[in-house]
Amino acid sequence: MVKRIKELTSLLNEASKAYYQKDSEMMSNQEYDRLYDELVALEKESGIVLANSPTQRVGYTVLSNLKKVKHDSPILSLDKTKETDKLKSFLGDKEGILSWKLDGLTIVLTYENGELVQAITRGNGEIGEDVTHNAKVFANVPLHIGFKGSLVLRGEGVISYSEFRRINKELAEEEAYKNPRNLCSGTVRQLNSEIAAKRRVQFFAFTVVKAEGAERSDSKAENLQWLKNLGFDVVEHRLISAETAEQEVEWFRDHVQENDIASDGLVLTFDSISYSGSLGRTAKFPKDSIAFKWADEMAETILREVEWNTSRTGLMNPIAIFDPVELEGSTVSRASVHNVSILKELKLGIGDRIKVYKANMIIPQISENLTGSSTVEIPEKCLVCGGETQIKKQRDGEALYCTNPECAAQRIQRLNHFVSRDAMNIEGLSEETLKKFLEKGFIDQYPDIFRLNRFEKEIKSLEGFGEKSYQNLINSIEKSRDVELPNFIYALGIDQVGLRNAKLLCGKFEYDIEGIKRATEDELQSIDGFGAVIAHSISHYFKDDSHISLLEDVLEYLRIKIPIITEAKDSLVKGLTFVVTGDVTKFSNRKALTQAIEAQGGKITGSVTKKTDYLINNDVDSSSSKNGKAKELGIPIISEDDFILKFNITPAE
Length: 653
Known about the structure:
The chain has 24 helices and 24 strands. It is of the alpha+beta class.
């Protein structure tokens, strides 16, 4: 029993550390709660409670260079239940407020004389971080309010699902965030407030801590209305009694799927402020509030298959197929396993008996594997095209990719990439138009784009097309035939080869495409920033006969240009190698910063190595892998402001 207590304590502390310090997750909330409850039961049974037990702690102190501030009033975590009867007995004959338990970052705001003067994160409950600079650019936080006394309130900083999806689309897949909570935490703790402004963080107030100079009602609900009148958005809530508790919980349950804001349950607190104050608290929990977690409806079933779906970007998502079961009013037979790391953690095998549920009553997931045979094999070949697969590191674990850009599942994306601005820059070929042309048989592979004039009559007859739009498209295609070699290499969609690496590749082989085609992996690895993975990807691409056939076909239509790089004679970056990561704010985007460096004779690579001279990252104190590598190698990490001052290069107007 003692051994298991130690195991659980260590595992849960590591999970909390990942959650609070690194904005990532080792396990689902459901799995954390299950293990936490097991630890509580073992501690109660044995009487043994370790000093570092998570049952005795509120959270971890987050690591950054943000100023640390002690809370005047500690922010405790809440006791929890999954039973509505517990809510009824908790209320007794008192009235309470039932509200969403928003899944974001708790923040304390302070106003003096009507001005926002401070915003502090929850931190470990005793000490938080000063994020005032970011709170001032939240989408809905009032900077000035009509109340001129001293006001302290708590609320939750959140990023909506819709905003979360928009932001993740703009990030590379390996940099994408797993959920809105992680994104919000990482955003609010950025040192640069422009990032928080761009990501539309919202704040929803849920309690007044102090309001000196105000005639306060004893009702928390009326205090929330008072905050609303001052201009704050407040968490959605309803007044309840023991008699109405069950039906009100059902009201929230019925509205879960309508929420654009992530919620991991409900919070019940007594409406009376004076009564709440008389109850006191335990070492960890306040006695006036309790969290309600949805009692996940579990079902046991048999795993029959793991299906690997290849996305347009080559990401191969494992999908568990199991005997159909009824969950939350619907029949479920499939659940995403998300990535290779989770697949391994669950030890999945065909025929295993598994438990499944709907996370937040919406998304089917596997809770646990009762068999744990670990017999599911990770495909070495793509199930769509037979191409090589590769496991890549992502923000939240390992993921499997098909490395073949000719894969049918990736064709639309590949064509869309080929015509994009930084590639061939062909206007008039949107993703929808490419889909239509593929369906009609006008295009099969990218060289066919330069033969579209064969279908002039058919294209003009399509809905949305006519003489003018057709001619504009043909003119754009003709213009694209004059292309610089790096842009063309980038357009091919070779795995690991962005425009930056394409420029380095072309420079190494003096803009000779035949030299690039013949390059060995050893030659490729000699390029700054090119490791074994990039070298293998390029070499493998040009050894494929189908790729060479398409390449020779399309070259008949192109007029390859060699780019002209103008270097300033007194350039301070000439000969230096830079890596750029994270959001930029002074330059219009990363591309603009990259072009400014290259125009002055500097080099840009994608990864930090011993050959790197500077890592440019506005969040110089982040715990990212690139920052960690730079610190390990003793490479300076500088912000955009540092870069501009040090190298006298300013963004173009």
